[in-house]
Amino acid sequence: MNPDSLKLAGRVAVITGASRGIGRAVALRLAELGAPVVINYVRDEAAANEVVGLARQHGVEAIAIRADVSKLGGARELVAQTLAHFQRLDLLICNAGIWEGDAVEHMSEEVWDRTLEINLKGTWTVCREAIPQMKTQHFGRIVIVSSTAGQRGEAHYSNYAASKGGQISFTKALSTELGPFGITVNAVAPGWVDTELSGEPLGDPDNRRAIENGIPVGRVASADDIALPIVFLCSEWARHITGEVLNVNGGSVLCG
């Protein structure tokens, strides 16, 4: 395989929620293939700077930008700083998200609103701000990190499932809207992933064993297991794929 055939070298990538987990893994894989990366974060500056340092070891430019994409102003600042530094924006990975829940009758309005604002609204805000530049370039790749919860629901996480299902519908709507402008829009739908987000349930050995028993391949995904398909969707190899939801769950949820 010739990495140059992926045509990722020089493509400027913005990854939201990139200081840890899936976002971090995506940033490092893209940097490895020659893409300059923007590491978006909200709180953990040290972790974001660590990812910047690791990305630069691959010989690409990398910067960290603090911005709360659950607010339109934060997304606007993220894109503005990216364009000021790189003068273009080619790849957008909408990864920022939280996983909080409760039984529906006990769920607070605060938890419901925070989940929808970060997971769903935060996807809309960065797309809204990045798309005009992509239209000008007549090129763009948008990948939205959804979840199996958005396909089948998830008990006690109705807010999360609603936000992730919304991302899937948003993906399909944008793909038809933006196709004429040379922009593809796809989603990945991970199942269980061994990241900080799911650290509590996976940290219990018995619970983890039960989770793994429900996954046909027999293990929980690593962050890199999700990052690699995302990179594929950003690449030239996926140039005719848009509006797709790529399931990356070890066979635990089978959706047509």
Topology at a glance:
Elements: E1 13-15, H1 21-32, E2 37-41, H2 45-56, E3 62-66, H3 72-86, E4 91-94, H4 109-137, E5 140-145, H5 149-152, H6 158-178, E6 183-190, H7 199-203, H8 205-213, H9 223-234, E7 245-248
Helix pairs in contact: 1-2, 1-9, 3-4, 4-6
Strand element count: 7
Indicate the multimeric state.
single chain
Mean pLDDT: 95
Radius of gyration: 17 Å
Domain count: 1
The major sheet is characterized as: 7 strands, parallel
Order of the strands making up the biggest sheet: 3-2-1-4-5-6-7
Principal-axes geometry comes out as: globular
Tell me what the CATH architecture is: 3-Layer(aba) Sandwich
Helix content: 40-55%
What's the helix count? Answer: 9
Structural class: alpha/beta
End-to-end separation in angstroms reads 29 Å
Q: List unreliable stretches of 5+ residues.
A: none
CATH class: Alpha Beta
Strand residue percentage = 5-15%
Following the backbone from N to C, one meets helices and strands in this order, namely EHEHEHEHEHHEHHHE
CATH 4th-level superfamily: NAD(P)-binding Rossmann-like Domain
Explain how this protein is built.
This protein has 256 residues and is α/β, with parallel strands linked by helices. It has one domain (3-194, 223-248): NAD(P)-binding Rossmann-like Domain (Rossmann fold, 3-Layer(aba) Sandwich), CATH 3.40.50.720. The chain has 9 helices and 7 strands; from the N terminus they run E-H-E-H-E-H-E-H-E-H-H-E-H-H-H-E. It has helices at 21-32, 45-56, 72-86, 109-137, 149-152, 158-178, 199-203, 205-213, 223-234; strands at residues 13-15, 37-41, 62-66, 91-94, 140-145, 183-190, 245-248. A 7-stranded parallel sheet has the order 3-2-1-4-5-6-7, with helices on both faces. Strand 1, helix 1 and strand 2 form a beta-alpha-beta unit. Helix 1 crosses helix 9 (223-234), helix 3 (72-86) packs parallel to helix 4 and helix 4 (109-137) runs parallel beside helix 6. The longest helix has 29 residues, at 109-137. It starts with 12 loop residues before the first strand and ends in an 8-residue tail after the last strand. The relative contact order is 0.14. The model has no long low-confidence stretch (mean pLDDT 95).
